[in-house]
Amino acid sequence: MIRTIYWDNNAVVMIDQKALPLQETYLTCKHYEEVIKAINDLTVRGAPAIGVAAALGIALGALCIESGDPEGFRTDFYRICERFAATRPTARNLFWAVEKMKKRFAESASLSPARRKEALVAEAIRICEEDSAANRAMGRHGRSLIKNGDTILTHCNAGALATAGYGTALGVIRAAREEGKELHVFVDETRPVLQGARLTAWELTKENIPATLITDSMAGSLMQQGRINLIIVGADRIALNGDTANKIGTYTLAVLAKEHGIPFYIAAPLSTIDLSVQEGRAIPIEEREGEEVSCYHGVRTAPAGIKVYNPAFDVTPHRYITAIITEKGIATAPYGESLQRLVAAQAFG
Amino acid sequence: MIRTIYWDNNAVVMIDQKALPLQETYLTCKHYEEVIKAINDLTVRGAPAIGVAAALGIALGALCIESGDPEGFRTDFYRICERFAATRPTARNLFWAVEKMKKRFAESASLSPARRKEALVAEAIRICEEDSAANRAMGRHGRSLIKNGDTILTHCNAGALATAGYGTALGVIRAAREEGKELHVFVDETRPVLQGARLTAWELTKENIPATLITDSMAGSLMQQGRINLIIVGADRIALNGDTANKIGTYTLAVLAKEHGIPFYIAAPLSTIDLSVQEGRAIPIEEREGEEVSCYHGVRTAPAGIKVYNPAFDVTPHRYITAIITEKGIATAPYGESLQRLVAAQAFG
Questions:
Q1: How many other CB atoms sit within 10 Å of the CB of residue A291?
Q2: Topology classification of domain A5-136
Q3: Inter-chain residue contact A212 with B309, CB threshold 8 Å
Q4: What are the start and end residues of each CATH 1.20.120.420 domain in chain A?
Q5: For the whole model, what pTM was predicted?
Q6: Across the interface, do B191 and A216 touch by the CB < 8 Å criterion?
Q7: A-contacting residues in B 212-241 (Cβ below 8 Å)
Q8: What is the three-class DSSP state of B151?
Q9: Quick check: helix, strand or coil at residue B246?
């Protein structure tokens, strides 16, 4: 079992995703600043994992607060929360986790500072454990969409490494395998950061799930050849109408899927849904530094002076999405209704 | 002016495209085996440039033939031609150039071996010069399709480096610039070999044509944002019905162009048209070694043991192609008629 991120002895431990697949090393963060740095530099990435990292990081930050008076504690706690909220703009789960921690903070106002810190640590650990459980539930719901013998295409890494464990899109694939289905996975390498080649290929190889690596530009040819039965990807933020932000390149796959009549599925926990965003165009899209595209391992691959455009995500309009797999069930169009129903189901237990 | 490949003092000189954009170095081949190696290892690439390399390489091979008797000369010459024909399977221009050299060989049967070698060298130089001239003619025809202020997307390298000079798709862009049109070019990096990042970005930077580099997976998002006015790419082989094989990822761009109502143009010399192939499915698609995808600069980017699928080309069906720009004019659907007409126009002068 791959342990992506967890709380251990007043520290946040995470697998170093920048070192994969060449090295399997773990980073132990004893100060919340180290967790912030790990989110920023992609040591931990994937929307649900970023949410978990923020929750655990905020708990770690709370432990460091020295102020004994409630007002000072509050000021320091909110400052730490804002620092985490400023790391990456697109992943909804990040803001969801920050809000969960703030809520627990408010609820624990009557406790002593020491007890309050314990409550915040307990909340963060619960967020971590619930994410893992949500993925397994997603797998149980989603596996019905995969038939024995299917060939599946996935993009980026929506696996154990993108979550507290098990994965969203890869969780559904794992669940189908666990019930004995034969399947084959084509993995988009996912430029520029190569999460597919480095992380998804590593997860699938580790578990002996038959897989083949391709460049992002080869997916269309495979669909044209009739070699892809379905596509499953994760999500970084889902608008109320079902429009979904995910790793750059996802929209292209959705258009190709439509052109070839191939089902296109999103797998994501309900914490990915942004109830404050009506449609995809309102989702903020992170642009990252050009060197991710123009350099590799410190070697320039493009001439000096060339401009680079490097959006980390794109938005797939809901009309391209066959279904959204969540831990509370599978939503289909109209998503405005189906997603609200699943969110309500979760809120009421 | 970029000189991609030329004949100089009984040698074939070519810019080393593997060293670009970091170094601008030239390789001087004094034996035809060196030219074969250069085609195989992508020191020279791009369908028209491969054709020119083969013609010049065969001429170089002819110079080395020691046999004085016509039958021995013929055997050696044909063996050299077969060696070149076996380098890369998709580029039509390679086979076209080999046939041109065989034709000149047959026509020169009455000459002494020394004169015959001269005739073959002269033919190869003519093929090289005509390719360059064809690109300029393509530019004059194609530039009318570009409006002042347009933003153009291109894929791979269909520039001076892919030809004897000036370029096919980039030739049309150069011609539009030369008549004073303002334009901006988005360059797909073109995984796995990064011809866009390494070569097209280098050509455009060198000539101060405004350009922005993106990963292949970002093109769809740009089209969705309404930021692309037209797409121009080259071709490796065109079937009689207009179906076009080009660098892997081209088909995806064509599907995206259709989805967004964006014109999708092919620019290629008539030597790219395969009169023996009725439709795209009959075009042989080269598969290259997996290390192109799973390694970079000798560093593995994917885990050991992962399978790789690495087709170098895909086929875009003619129904996605708005027009095919050639040196004899612009072909539109039905291509079966329009391409035949242009080929006939060329044959008769």
A1: 14
A2: Four Helix Bundle (Hemerythrin (Met), subunit A) (1.20.120)
A3: yes
A4: 5-136
A5: 0.97
A6: yes
A7: 212-222, 224
A8: strand
A9: strand
